Amino acid sequence: MDWLLDPLQFNFIIRALLAALVVGIVCSVLGTYVVLRGMAFFGDALAHTILPGVVIAFLLGWPLAIGALIFGVLTAVGIGALTDRGTLKEDTAIGVVFAGLFALGIALLSMSGNYTVDLAHFLFGNLLGVSISDLVVIVILAAIVLLTILLFYKEFLLISFDPVLATTLRIPTTLLRYLLLVLIAITIVTALQVVGIALMLAMFVTPAATASLLTRRLPSMMAVAAAIGAISGVVGVYASFYLNVASGAAVVLVASLIFIFVFLFAPGRGFIWQRQ
């Protein structure tokens, strides 16, 4: 039991565990919609398009999360507007915005001579460096996302599985689509400190994809994905502490290992079962 309790004598480990737990849950729950609606590319693109906001906030001396949140929401709404009338296909609009804003972020980085230490953790995560104020922001944003999902659960379910019926019932599908895009942007900002921009997609997709191999119903898929995300976060923190590896990478690797195990051995649907 010493190996389990010894890290808890450090306050930064406790903060890291709490942050990883919260982020693992909120990313996994929202990630079920990302997986079911085929929005993985959007999530990855959005994670990268917030880079200019992070750099601008850094240059202005603002909290980096504010810049990330502003650019994330604007990007989500902008992509929604570009694809609303069918002028552009969604993947095309995402590709254009993704490339342009990420290039802008890189250009701004190249103009700033002292960005390396300050911004590197936003690219690759700095879970063990989470402060109390960071933790408060993470908890507040995660609560907003989870509460919104709870309030609009039936509507999100309907537009995800039967958009034609949703339109027939006069449910505001466009507004709900924008809301879902904004929630993804908020969640990305929530998870920045934990896994960084580079590994963001994994926290959305991997736990949810693993859960989809174990269950078909959305509520149980959300619950299983949240459990996998939470376990990945906690185990990743301990792995980072004992193995001296990057914390964000450790969290993602744990989630990936769980996926591989489930993919191989999931009862009735795993690769090994299907080969028998």
Mean pLDDT: 87
The amount of helix comes to over 70%
- Main β-sheet: number of strands, strand sense, barrel status? none
Note the overall shape.
globular
**What do we call the CATH topology?**
ABC transporter involved in vitamin B12 uptake, BtuC
Give the helix tally. Answer: 15
CATH class: Mainly Alpha
Task: Tell how many strands the DSSP assignment holds.
Answer: 0
Would you identify the CATH H-level superfamily?
A: ABC transporter involved in vitamin B12 uptake, BtuC
Known CATH architecture: Orthogonal Bundle
What count of domains describes the coordinates? 1
Structural class: mainly alpha
Task: Describe the structure in your own words.
The structure is a single chain. This protein has 276 residues and is mainly α. It has a single domain, classed as ABC transporter involved in vitamin B12 uptake, BtuC, CATH 1.10.3470. 81% of the residues lie in helices and 0% in strands. It has helices spanning 2-5, 11-36, 40-49, 51-60, 64-84, 90-111, 116-124, 132-151, 153-161, 163-168, 173-195, 200-212, 218-243, 247-265, 271-275. Helix 3 packs antiparallel against helix 12. The termini are far apart.
Task: Set out the fold topology.
Blueprint: H1 2-5, H2 11-36, H3 40-49, H4 51-60, H5 64-84, H6 90-111, H7 116-124, H8 132-151, H9 153-161, H10 163-168, H11 173-195, H12 200-212, H13 218-243, H14 247-265, H15 271-275
Helix pairs in contact: 2-8, 2-11, 2-12, 2-13, 3-6, 3-12, 4-5, 4-6, 5-6, 5-11, 7-11, 8-11, 12-13, 12-14, 13-14
